[in-house]
Write a structure and sequence with these properties.
268 residues; alpha+beta; Outer membrane lipoprotein wza fold like; 5-stranded mixed sheet; 3-stranded antiparallel sheet; 7 helices; 12 strands; 21% strand; elongated
């Protein structure tokens, strides 16, 4: 009789262990998987077959207090060239961030940059092209046949959250879109919430928060497809990640399975 009871308990425990183990595996899988549909960028809506997008909302950065600009003047007169480009050196070695910064011109609290010979030139609120034209006009008062180059000194965009390489990235081009920046950050992780990317954008007066849906192809024509200097991108995690890695009781599951196996071995 005792032998029969032990066999029944053994069968019962074996069934319980298998069931419990199966439920645990399924719970982990379902809690940690993100549907493929939630990972595909630029999805079409309905039966749309649109393949050409025009972003007419691109706007150029307007110079603000605290910006630094690179200014270089080219002239057929060697002496004029050297005078207007003081500090750059004959080799033009501007490849290091510190060198770029030290050889740039700072937009002061009143919106001016102070240039050699010309003195203060007001540039606040201007685009780079407008600042270039303004400086060119000032130089033309004194010299003929000169060409002015103006660029915004390397600015930064920060990417944090569910990306493979979060950090602050220096940008060396006039404009950059959100996919290019995410590419610099090694793309999003599996647990990134792609339909609600947070963009933090500041101006002289305030800071605003925008929400971007990478899953929609409409992004290509939105105001936030192209990023601006000092933008911050925050990629939120999906809810499943928190459950899979924080809430799910791994310790309890493992200890329970271990106890059941010990009892099963003892009865055997």
């Amino acid at each position: 009789m005792t032998h029969i009871i032990i066999n029944q308990m053994r069968i019962y425990l074996s069934a319980v262990i298998k069931t419990f183990f199966g439920i645990s595996i399924l719970s982990i899988l379902f809690s940690s998987c993100v549907p493929i549909k939630k990972q595909i960028y630029l999805q079409t809506k309905g039966d749309s077959t649109k393949s050409e997008f025009t972003n007419q909302k691109i706007y150029n950065h307007k110079l603000q207090i605290g910006n630094n600009i690179y200014v270089k003047v080219f002239s057929i007169d060697e002496k004029s060239y050297e005078f207007f480009n003081l500090g750059y050196g004959a080799s033009g070695n501007l490849y290091y961030d510190a060198a770029v910064y030290l050889n740039s011109y700072y937009v002061d609290s009143e919106g001016y940059v102070e240039l050699p010979f010309l003195g203060k030139v007001f540039v606040r609120g201007m685009t780079i092209e407008e600042a270039k034209n303004t400086i060119q006009t000032e130089i033309d008062k004194y010299l003929n046949k000169t060409t002015v180059i103006v660029k915004l000194v390397n600015y930064t965009i920060s990417v944090v959250g569910e990306v493979n390489r979060p950090g602050q990235y220096k940008i060396y081009q006039d404009k950059i879109n959100i996919f290019e920046v995410l590419g610099l950050a090694g793309d999003l992780t599996t647990y990134a919430k792609r339909d609600d990317i947070v963009l933090v954008r500041k101006s002289e007066k305030n800071t605003r928060v925008y929400h971007i849906d990478l899953l929609s192809e409409n992004l290509l024509e939105s105001d936030y497809y192209y990023l601006m200097p000092d933008d911050i991108i925050y990629v939120k995690p999906v809810g499943g990640k928190n459950f899979a890695f924080s809430t799910f009781p791994y310790t309890l599951v493992i200890s329970s399975i271990s106890l059941a196996l010990a009892i099963f071995a003892l009865l055997k």
